[in-house]
Amino acid sequence: MSGILYLITAGFIPAMAAVIIAYGLVKKAPVYDYFIEGARKGLTTAFEILPFLIGIFLAINCLSASGLIGLINLLFQPLFSLLGIPPDLLPLIFLRAVSGSGSLMIVQNIMETAGPDSYAGRAACVMSGGCETIIYVLALYFGVTHTKNMRHTLKGGLIGYFTGVIVSLLVCRIL
Question: Mean pLDDT throughout 41-69?
Answer without folding.
Answer: 82
